[in-house]
Design brief:
Helices cover about 75% and strands about 0% of the residues. With about 450 residues, it is mostly helical. Helix 12 runs antiparallel to helix 21.
Length: about 450
C-alpha cells in the first residue's frame, strides 16, 4: 500500500472527529471507524513482529467473541472507541513544528553547556527538559535531548543521561494534558484536569527531588571540554527558553479558559489548540511556504512513524469494548470479589499488577488500561473513587512503561544508546519505578484520609 495512504487515513480519522463538533457530518461515526480500519490495514505491514502478533490476536478474538453479523458490526463501530485519545496523539505533535522551527532546542543546548559542571546537574537539567518539553513533544523529545547531551564531556555519563530522560519523561504522565494517559482518565472517569493536575505535579516534584538528591550523593565532576561551539550569547539563550516556557504555559491556560467558557471537553480542546497554535506560531516565525513544507514533513515523518501506537490504541479500544459487551466487567468484579477487594486502596495494587505483568511480555499498557478504565468507571462499587482510580492508573501506567523491556520508551532509549532494553527496564529503572508507585500510593492514601 502506498505510504501516502497512511498519513491521509490518519488525518481523515482525526479530522472528521474534530470537525463533527462544529459541522454536522452525515455518518461521522461510521466514517471514523472506516478510516480507523484503513489505518490498521495500511500500517500493519510496517509493524514490528510483536505488535503484529498482538493486534492479530486481539482482532481475531474480538470477532470471535460474538461472530454474528450484529456482533461484527458492533466490533467495527468500536474501532472509534479511543478516537478522542487518538486525536490528541495525532495532532499534539504539531506543536513540535514551531519549536523546532524557532530553534528553541538550540538555546536549551547552550544553557546545558554553560551550567552543567557535575553529574547531578546533568541529571537535573535533563530530567526537567524531558518532563517539560516532552510533555508537549512526547517521546520524540528523547532522541533530540540525548543528542544534545551526546558531547565529549557528557558522553562518559551515559547512564545518568538515560535515567534522567526516562524518569523526567514518564513523570509527565501524571499531569500533562497533552498525554494519552491523561486523555484516557478524563475520558472514562468523572474527574477534571484541574483536580488531577496538582496531585500529579506534587508527585512529580517529590520524585524529581528524590532523584536529584540520590544523584547528588554520588555526584562526579564533569571534566571541562569544549562541548559546544556556539556563537549564541547566553543571555539570548535564556530569553528564548523563557519565551518558550511562557508560550507553552499560555497555551495550557488558554485550553483551561476555553473549557470553562464552552461545553467542549479538554480532550477536544487540546488537539484543536495544538492545530491552531502551531499554525499561528509557525507563521510568526516563518513564511507560509515554510509552514507547508513543515506540515509535509510532519505528515510524512511524524505521522508515518505513529503506526505502532495508532494501531494498538485503535485495537485496544475495540477489544476493550468487545470484552465489556461480553461480560468483562462481571469477570473483573468476580476477581475482585474472590480477592475480597471492596476498597479502592486495596484495588490499586491489583491494578499495578494487572498492568505491569502483561507489559513485561509485550502487551501495551493502553490495552489493560482501557479495559480497566471502562470496567471500573462503570462499577457502582467505586463510583465515589474516580479521583483515586485516576491517579492510581497513572502510577500503574508509569510502573508498566518504565519496567517493560517492550515499552516504546525503553525500546527507543535502547536504540539510541545501544544498550539492552532489558538492562534499561530492570537494572536502571525498576527500583525507581517501584518507588514512584509507592509514593503515588502514599499520596492517594493521604488524600483518601483527608478528603
Amino acid at each position: 500500500m502506498k505510504p501516502a495512504i497512511r498519513p491521509l487515513t490518519t488525518l481523515l480519522m482525526g479530522g472528521i472527529y474534530l470537525l463533527s463538533f462544529f459541522i454536522p457530518i452525515p455518518y461521522a461515526p461510521f466514517l471514523i471507524s472506516l478510516f480507523a480500519l484503513a489505518v490498521l490495514v495500511s500500517y500493519f505491514p510496517t509493524l514490528p513482529r510483536m505488535p503484529k502478533i498482538l493486534i492479530s490476536v486481539l482482532f481475531a478474538v474480538g470477532l470471535l467473541l460474538e461472530p454474528t453479523s450484529a456482533g461484527i458490526r458492533e466490533f467495527f463501530m468500536a474501532l472509534q472507541t479511543n478516537i478522542n485519545l487518538l486525536a490528541i496523539f495525532i495532532f499534539v505533535p504539531l506543536l513540535s513544528v514551531p519549536i523546532q522551527q524557532g530553534q528553541y532546542l538550540k538555546y536549551i543546548e547552550v544553557i546545558f553547556a554553560h551550567y552543567i559542571k557535575k553529574t547531578h546537574q546533568l541529571y537535573l537539567f535533563s530530567t526537567v527538559a524531558a518532563g517539560s518539553i516532552g510533555a508537549v513533544m512526547n517521546v520524540g523529545t528523547l532522541p533530540i535531548l540525548y543528542d544534545l547531551t551526546d558531547t565529549p564531556s557528557f558522553k562518559p555519563f551515559d547512564e545518568v543521561r538515560l535515567k534522567a530522560l526516562s524518569r523526567g519523561f514518564v513523570m509527565a504522565f501524571m499531569w500533562s494534558p497533552y498525554f494519552i494517559s491523561m486523555a484516557l482518565v478524563l475520558s472514562y472517569f468523572e474527574v477534571s484536569w484541574l483536580q488531577l493536575f496538582p496531585i500529579g505535579l506534587a508527585i512529580t516534584v517529590i520524585m524529581m527531588a528524590l532523584g536529584f538528591w540520590n544523584e547528588r550523593r554520588k555526584s562526579r565532576p564533569i571534566p571541562e571540554a569544549s562541548s559546544i561551539k556556539s556563537t549564541v550569547p547566553l543571555k539570548l539563550a535564556k530569553r528564548k527558553v523563557f519565551e518558550l516556557a511562557l508560550i507553552l504555559l499560555a497555551v495550557t491556560a488558554m485550553i483551561l479558559v476555553i473549557e470553562n467558557l464552552t461545553e467542549l471537553s479538554v480532550l477536544t480542546i487540546v488537539p484543536l489548540a495544538a492545530i491552531a497554535v502551531s499554525f499561528v506560531w509557525s507563521l510568526l516565525l516563518g513564511t507560509p511556504r515554510e509552514l507547508i513544507e513543515n506540515l509535509q514533513g510532519y505528515a510524512s515523518g511524524k505521522i508515518a512513524s505513529m503506526g505502532n501506537e495508532l494501531s494498538i490504541f485503535i485495537m485496544a479500544g475495540a477489544f476493550g469494548t468487545a470484552l465489556l459487551n461480553n461480560g468483562a466487567d462481571d469477570w473483573i468484579r468476580y476477581l475482585l470479589e474472590s480477592l475480597n477487594i471492596t476498597h479502592v486502596l486495596l484495588l490499586l495494587p491489583v491494578m499495578a499488577v494487572l498492568m505491569s505483568i502483561p507489559s513485561w511480555i509485550g502487551i501495551h499498557p493502553i490495552i489493560t488500561a482501557t479495559i480497566l478504565a471502562i470496567t471500573l468507571s462503570n462499577s457502582p462499587l467505586f463510583a465515589e473513587d474516580h479521583l483515586y482510580l485516576g491517579v492510581g492508573l497513572f502510577a500503574s501506567w508509569m510502573l508498566a512503561i518504565m519496567t517493560s523491556p517492550f515499552s516504546g520508551l525503553n525500546l527507543l532509549l535502547a536504540a539510541i544508546s545501544r544498550k539492552s532494553s532489558i538492562y534499561i527496564a530492570f537494572k536502571m529503572n525498576f527500583t525507581f519505578a517501584l518507588l514512584i508507585w509507592l509514593i503515588s500510593y502514599a499520596v492517594i492514601s493521604l488524600l483518601y484520609a483527608i478528603l
